[in-house]
Design a protein that fits this description.
Layout lengths: L1 H5 L2 H13 L2 H21 L4 H16 L6 H15 L4 H9 L6 H10 L13 H11 L11 E6 L2 H7 L13 E8 L10 H19 L3 E2 L2 E2 L6 H12 L5 E3 L1 E6 L23
Antiparallel strand pairs: 1-2, 2-5, 2-6, 3-6, 4-6
Helix pairs in contact: 2-4, 3-4, 3-5, 4-5, 8-10
Length: 279
């Protein structure tokens, strides 16, 4: 029944009207998600006509608004091209192959196992461009349906750091030159998958922490507490930083040049982590 509805003229009119009513930010989000749907359908060899129609509708609306072309819109056009002609852009495939950088197992393990939660930093000022470069790498982290429903506050001023204090009992983070605050757009997740927002956030946060470590910075992952004052604190936070209501802080990440790299705490044995169901 659903497939019949999706192919009906009435449903397609509904999609067209809906695409006209959403904000630019939501339009970009839908492009990423519907692009993911089409990409998956092409890979699985399933019927992609509805996904293709909606993606073409969204990309047309995007350029009707005179929005600037991006990596996402190029990716969308490549998917449409592939779906309609059954072809893959050979130039794009060549570029992807050339961009594969050999990574030794030793270097990868060293990066993952060498990262630490750093709580003390030198007085050396931090260039925000270094954080931006790390985020440029971290943005390649996976997210559900390619939502990428995240933004990041880069907090440097003392009064702004004080505003963050409402979310944690920790105080050491205020000594860091920069505090990165990951935000997630909760409106991009419907009721049944609200928890995906935190999975997606964890994905990019871990990638950011590893990138910062490799670049010689120390950072610490601090959780945002949802206590009895959370709703009021959230309103005050959004007002202070001029954020709309859908943007929710999920963590505080103080960053700087570390004074001392802490000794690694012991980890659980891998055998204690596995529930063996093979017997």
């Amino acid at each position: 029944m659903r497939q019949i509805l999706e192919r009906s003229p009435a449903y397609r009119i509904f999609l067209r009207l809906r695409s006209r009513s959403i904000s630019n930010e939501r339009l970009k989000s839908r492009l990423r998600r519907r692009g993911h749907n089409l990409d998956k359908a092409l890979a699985d060899g399933t019927d992609c006509r509805v996904a293709l129609f909606e993606l073409k509708l969204l990309i047309s609306e995007y350029f009707r608004r005179n929005l600037k072309g991006t990596e996402t819109t190029k990716w969308v056009w490549d998917l449409i091209y592939q779906a309609e002609l059954g072809l893959v852009d050979s130039d794009d495939m060549r570029v992807l192959t050339e961009n594969v950088v050999p990574l030794t197992e030793q270097n990868f393990k060293k990066a993952v196992m060498g990262r630490r939660s750093v709580r003390q930093w030198t007085a050396e000022p931090l260039n925000v461009d270094d954080i931006v470069r790390a985020l440029d790498v971290a943005r390649w982290a996976p997210s559900s349906c390619n939502r990428q429903a995240w933004k990041f506050l880069l907090v440097q001023k003392h009064q702004d750091k004080e505003c963050l204090q409402m979310f944690t009992h920790q105080t050491f983070f205020k000594q860091a030159p920069v505090v990165v605050v990951p935000l997630v757009d909760m409106e991009d997740y419907h009721k049944e998958i609200k928890h995906y927002a935190y999975l997606d956030s964890g994905s990019i946060i871990q990638t950011l922490l590893l990138t910062l470590h490799v670049e010689g910075f120390g950072a610490c992952w601090i959780g945002v507490k949802h206590d009895q004052q959370y709703d009021g604190n959230l309103d005050a936070f959004q007002s202070h930083f001029g954020l709309s209501k859908q943007w929710i802080p999920v963590s505080l990440i103080p960053v700087g040049r570390y004074e001392l790299l802490p000794k690694a705490p012991p980890r659980k044995d891998v055998d204690d982590m596995i529930l063996d169901q093979t017997d």
